[in-house]
Fold these 3 entries.
Entry 1:
Amino acid sequence: MNFPRTMAIAGVLVATAVAAAEIPQEQRRSGFSFMTPETQAMQNDDTTNPGMLWVLDGEALWKRKAGAADKACADCHGDAAASMKGVAAHYPAFDKALGRPIDLEQRINLCRTGQQQATPLAFESRDLLGLTAFVARQSRGSPIEAGADPQLEPFIARGRALYGQRQGQLNLACANCHDDNWDKRLAGSAITQGHATGYPLYRLEWQTLGSLQRRLRACLTGIRAQAYDFGSPELIELELYLMSRARGLPTESPAVRP
Amino acid sequence: MHSALINVPAKAKRGDVIEIKTLMSHIMETGYRHTVSGETVPRDIITNFACRFNGSEIFRADLFPAIAANPFFSFFTTVTESGKFEFEWIGDLGFSETAAASITVE
């Protein structure tokens, strides 16, 4: 009986199949290219892109003093157009003090609790989305560079494993749609490759701006899995893997999606 | 906190037809939704939008619950003189916002 060896070979075959299913670098493209010309035009014009309303809110918050320290973001970071240029393209990034990656929303909240001595803003609150959109807006056009830090490697690997792991009542992995079937449609909508190039972004379906974590949780609910909590390590690792996978694509924040 | 985005060309030639675009942040809560405990979420929408040019009204719209959040308007007008466009949004729960933009006609 050669059962263990058969299993080992099967394991190797599965591993090869998963690796081969990754989208080749030259074929990677943003969800933008899957949209209708009308929705693309809406994103490209700053006076029709509703995400810019949050950017305006975020700009006001950037200058407003907050917390026991009575400091505004601008008091340390100055003009965001210079100090925040390209920053969002590097997130999620490794935080030395915490010893793990954090996303842009968590970075903003760490500044709030640490530097401003203010209460952290709730995930998906208008203020946190506004500040994140304003900071991310300064990176528009910058190529995504997240995941370059070697300390992030184990976290990217865990994110990749989660991305390929079947779960939920429908028993689907992220990869089953976004690597294997991105050139097809689901219920009339383009499936897309799942590159998180434009978050936080305005979804016409949501009628509001939302974070990548909200998007991931919606996907998990869609496959009838238990969605991870906001800020959970799993969501951050998935975000990190997606951003490292989108490396080189230009940042679009705040994007518009159908 | 309510923000508006206005797009009016800064300059135009006399007699030109120009496009005006406005976007106002608003949740446009329909009044038809219920909370988990069964209470109605009160209606909170913008009900009126108007645009005036040098004091005289050139565009007006009534809004209803089926209109999506953050209402966007695009409309056209002919410009004959330099002046100021004033925009006004009025809605439920005392909502009232204004914005303005100037144009130079050559």
Entry 2:
Amino acid sequence: MAFIPHTCADVEAMLATIGVSSIDTLFEEIPSTLRVKSLAGIPDELNEMEIGRLMSERAREDGRPLCFIGAGAYEHHIPAAVWAITTRGEFYSAYTPYQAEASQGTLQLIYEYQTMMASLTGMQVSNASVYDGASAVAEASLMAVRANRKSKSQRILVPTTVHPHYRKVAVATAGNQGLRFEEVPYSAGEGVIAATALAKYEGEDITAIVIQQPNFFGRLEDVDALTDWAHARGILVIAAVNPTSLALLKPPGSWGTRGADIAVGDGQPLGVPLSSGGPYFGFMTTRMEYVRQMPGRIVGRTVDLNGREGFTLTLQAREQHIRRAKATSNICTNQGLLMTAATIYMSLMGPQGLERTAAASHARTRELVAGLTRLKGVRAAFQGPVFHEAVVLLDRPVTPVLEALASRGILGGLDLAEHYPDLGHALLVCATETKTAADIDSYVAALNEVMQSPPAGDSLADRSVTRSAEGRAA
Amino acid sequence: MSNVPADLKYTKSHEWLRTLPDGTIEIGITDHAQHALGDLVFVEAPEAGRSVKAGEPCAVVESVKAASDVYSPVTGEVLAGNPELASEPEIVNTEPYGGGWLMRVRPAAGGATAQLLSPAEYEKLLQEEGD
């Protein structure tokens, strides 16, 4: 099915058919005060040649740095075939086509995607994807409120080991719909959910808990114990997972005795380029018993009148074009193009390829952390296993160090000061299979060079300056 | 023409009510409603112990065409949701006034009640709606 815009002749023919003289006449019933004439701050259009030049210039400003930043988006090798196939005309659309069943190939691909994601997460059913990992956590929280019919509180426990952006988006999306997100602190030495912090929720009505694995610090949570703890108290478990890690780690469907109830995450590691922060896609899988509470589109396999296999959108009765305000979600669709890339990526990689990618990323990160923490003034923040990210502590503020590294062509990680000021001078680093031993050596050598100069001023004094500045702002 | 039994009360939103000998109330959707929805594929009946208010959504009936709310005609406490419907929602299509009941409610003393229609009034409503 081709995606070609209407020509002027098409538009005129359609207007003539319904007896309307122009597009403006068609929209006449919209009062002129409500019409947007021009958008302030939006520059004039550029043609392809101009936009091509502008974007190459912007890209040149970025240079070709070695990237050791993860924090939710990861640089992985993407086989060339992934985007060569994804950008074929048959697939090149952002959404599910409106006459979905006319696009059997698209629906079959979504069906394959759902099968792969259900298998990867160890759950029974998947939707056709949502916007991104953060919105998936928000949607999963709303879904948990619908699914957990025994709980009336709409209280969702969100440990601070969950990605800070995911937490913010969950509050922004669902906070005004009566959901209360309550933060659970992490254990200072270990960088995982503090088991003692959960004790205060004994006997209280809690709807769900979000558990991120690996967590934002790269650390592995005790997901079995946490899941069983939650289920014993009627609390649903929302697993927020990295899809690459699932090639090595236990899938959410096998957490604890019963498995997690909803699994979500950002699908970016599966064939989607970093691309300055997006677009990415979110995935969402669950148990069959909760399928009617799951938002988004779901493709099913069926047979037609003649018994031939066909694919169709299913369970649409809960969607917004039928349920309107009472739909399972009014702010989600699927990320068709990126989901397509992910399906092709997973097909090309296979379980073995994904496992090798995950294992190599883990090994590179261990080498990186070992190299960095050999330097004077650098130490590991937490004890215990990680997947492909870790937090190191520096003896000085992180941002100036990152700036010095950037001038040497290295993006050295994420400064955690904004999100976790209590951690001190904490730096979140990541290495994937894209980094060679030589790349890691370059980073360690560059950091060594930067750290040769003594820390500028007393670090405690620096921190108190930051605090008083914050106090004034507040 | 829809079946409108003479021994029941009705609502404008197409629920029926049957007062049982012990004073509790059995609630379902009418023959007209099941016919308009088409083949039901899922029924979400309320859990026992839940408080319902007159006029508020208390159950969802889902067909291949649409998912619709069922509104409680009375204020009270749910004694039971029909457990059979979880695996056999089609009973609502075949026996809307019998085995297809949705829930049983104990009305609260002095609780509000939605405006109820007699069988004749409900039939008139259906005629006005073009049944």
Entry 3:
Amino acid sequence: MSSELIVTIFVAGIAAGTTLVFAAVGEIIAERSGVLNLGVEGMMLAGAVTGFLVNRQLRAPWLGVAAGISAGAALALLLAVLVVSFKANQVVTGLALVIFAIGMTGYLGESVVGVPPPVTFERIAIPGLADIPVAGRIFFAQDALVYLSYILVPATWWILFRTRTGLNLRSVGESPESADAAGLSVTGTRYAAVVIGGAFAGLAGAYLSLARAPSWVPNMTAGRGWIAIALVIFATWSPLRAALGGYLFGSVEALGFRLQTVGLEVSTFFIAMMPYLFTIVVLVLISRGSVQRRLAAPSALGNAYLREER
Amino acid sequence: MTSAIELRGIVKRFPGVVANSDIDLELRRGEVHALLGENGAGKSTLMSVLAGIYQPDAGSILIDGQPVALRSPRHAIEAGIAMVHQHFRLVKPFTVAENVLLGARTSWRLSPGKLEAEVADLARQAGLKASPSARIWQLSVGEQQRVEILKALYRKAQVLILDEPTAVLTPQEAEALFVTLRAMAAEGKTVVFVSHKLSEVMSVADRITVLRGGKHVATLETATTDQHRLAHLMVGRDIAFESARSPRAAGEVLLRVDDLHALSDLGLPAVRGASLSVHAGEILGLAGVAGNGQRELAEALAGARPPTRGRIELGGVDLTRASARRRIEAGLAYVPEDRLGTGLVGSMDATANIMLKSLPQYRRGPLLDYRSAARRTRELVEQFGIKMSSLDAPVRLMSGGNLQKLLLARELSSSPRVVIAAHPSSGLDVGATKFVHELLLEQRAQGVGILLISEDLDELLMLSDRIAVMYEGEIAGEAPPDEANLERIGLLMGGTAAAAPRAGGGG
Amino acid sequence: MTAPGGLRPRLVKRLLPSRRMRVAVRLIALLSAFAVAGIFLQATGRGAGPVYRAMWTGSFGSPYGQAQTILAAIPLIFTALAVAVAFRMLLWNIGAEGQFYLGAFGATAVAYAAPDWPRPILLGAMVLGGLIGGALWGLIPGALRAFFGTNEIVPTLLLNYVAILLVDYMVNGPWTDPATLGFPLGKPFSESAILPLVGNTAIHAGLYLALAAALVVSLVLSRTAWGYKIKVIGANTRAASYAGFSIPRNVVAVMLLSGALAGLGGMVEVSGVVHKIQANISPGFGYTGIIVATLARFSPLYIVPMAVLFGALVVSSVELQTLGLPSDIVLMLQGVILFFALAGELFVNYRLVWRAGAVSNRPSTPASASEPAPDLEPAG
């Protein structure tokens, strides 16, 4: 395998991974507050179709992105209402949301299936940085949304671990009773975290339909939302590691597409299986991993909180 | 004398029980006020109402004569009321500094160095030892409690409520806590001390309010009363303080434990070479502050945790790696501390729980004979006087006392030779506790060997023939069970090498 | 701070979940969902009336529709049973869809390998193939959970995608029917590989299998020692392992059974309805099965009527398609029904209590509860 091929794989890997990175970072925010958001797949689809439709109508990709973010956030608000206020089971609610979103997005996107978008996000080479050998091509010759992720990921990390907001958020996810006793609003924090997580998921979906594909096809996320959830575990709930993992997964996907160029005769179907199988293997390896890794999950993840409950 | 806080006519109901029934309470500045009552009397509930955690169904709260609505913990904190709970409200992975500052109005940007300096200052001013950069899970229970107090001080609390604070402390640590509390009262703060322990309440409080069955019974000046009167008020009748245990010669060794090692849930060593032996017809009391490996030891003995080294023998049979079933067959019974955790399945009914340890008995091929199991359950319910609404109801609805009776019924019905009882009377009222004690003494009289693990030194003194102390996974020492040795036991519990035994002293 | 007047709602946990609310919640959820969806349809320019009428005709409103409803309910019974069995041990089997596909795969392999066997024997072998195919696909996440502690939610889900791709590969490759020129369809089954019909209806004998499965699962869960064991494990793992139940072994056993049930659904679908293997044998039966199981409270017997209800929904979406209306509406409807049911579930477990603000000198009312338990410790 030539070094040129490897570089190409990484270039494509960054682009492919960015969807996962956005979704995973959003999920980290939600899960750090103690809410398991299994509706990511649905929120991504909502972001994808909404972004595509708005872009088609207004010929403005950034407005499409804004629309996608809003769509993801709106669905997330629905999840928050059910899960935080109505104390519904988080797993079933997430699944219900995905099923609903598949239906809704299929319905809304019916008229634009396969239609090429008027404007998309083009690759922009950052002057100067793009000239760095190897790294320049990989990191600094991507589209604007990828650059956005370069800013959002460290920003999220900083907010989570170096600000009062982040501390409060994490305390709600680790020990809602303690946060409550300290005077924080568990409900408010969880609502905010889930909605922001949904916004990120919507962004991830918009990235798919406006930059990556770019097009709208029903169910186009093809399980990336679930992979993002696995990625969060892999990244032990840290945004920086999530980015690393996302690019790694993206590179695996990119590698798969290029296997044939290396002379391996593999059916496209088996290539398509690779990301899913790879994710499962990673999950298993994590489960077998060190105790610290397994215990990195926010302690209150998945449980509803009611102050008077005992 | 202005009352700092006044509670009037507080009523609080939970499904199935009235926890607080029309309670009045008056708290003053500069006093340590004890709230005394047995388990279930409503003390914690009342204080949770004051701390904004529960909303009362009726009644009012006045601060400095003004009515207030404490709708949430935040409102209570802003009113200057802080509570140190029995189960700490601390975020384990966070540092001491992060916990103290949680929810307070600090700057938005957090730099760990600055935070820790601030907390170190506060600790120094308050005369409390604390390391601001330590993470909570690394601290001992006594240290964690100090962090809770620091939290209250940081929020400038004028009213500090402590809920059963000494349950997790050695006698020496408790003494140190009392000194701190008296100092805070001297500064003009109001300290409320919730407890069911008469001796403590007598030694630290200025005034004592007794609750019973959710109602206010009396408020007295400590100087004008004594333990007997308080006990009478607490329980509604006279209770005997003397031990019901008659001396017996111990028989042969039934259970022998040699150099046992076991790991905790986190994979760290919890039992580090414990050795002990239980004879027939004796109760061996195991004292120790929670978290020194007692739970892991009990679980290793019962078969719920695999030992990494050492040997367990019952009646000569090696049970070190035996299954739980084999241990039952060999005559070992286990009454775990978490009744609805390891012991019983809360969502299933009494019959299903009785069947749990003796499944082969009720199998007919692949099917289960529920009917004969139900019959047996009814027998046991009668024999042990268990009160339940119906045989089909999930057992988690049963009261603590009845749950314990059910558990004991199941374990004892197989006529064991050795019983491991972990904190058998925790959370039970005096009536249920007496029942459990009598049951254990009865078994002892029948020649059963009992390992009694408890944090309640009074209980241990009353029931045990010998007392061993567990500290950091080992048996630190033994002492005969009388008051004179209380100080030595306390020192062993706290990890200091055994001093020369001296009668008298704290406790 | 002075206290405001007025009433505030508060949630109080019920001692025992309310049975009446359970039924009420489901009914109200159903009606509300249809109402909301109807508004959405009107708002987006499609009449709710015509859509609902079409859905009715396609499902309960005609003999053809009724038969189709039953035919759609059958695979749902299987997938819902699969989910219910797993959930008994608090395992989330989101992979019923993939196990369904693998069951179809297994049955097809047998059908293509031995098309000339006598019907009863071939069908029996195909049932075995379906059971084994589904069981294998359930074994993978089950073993991962049992031996490595990997949570089964994501693996079961991802394996769905893998299963669909596997079948895609087969129907585009080794199993493709040359007569259909590159369409992802397998060769038609031989006569003896097709399930016979019931009487003179259009419903195949898979119905018997489905009903039998529901009955068997119900009996196994409630009457056998094994059913008791997995109930205990699901309710309290500590107590279960202390009682000597092997958790890993039972996790594997449950996932095998769960997968097998879903796989049987796949066999029944290819043998009874489609009569061949093709790319999209399931319009999401595995996922709808989760909804059916949830709404039926994971009870094997209640699953049957629920499956009929959702079978009607599935079938009505087909009717919508023939009228040029998007079938996605039905997926949305399913989601909305579940939303309302989930929200309503709150009222099954909690009661809404209206009380005045904290300042009130109302005399306390006598306790409405039964015997107060004096040694119940309300921990603060």
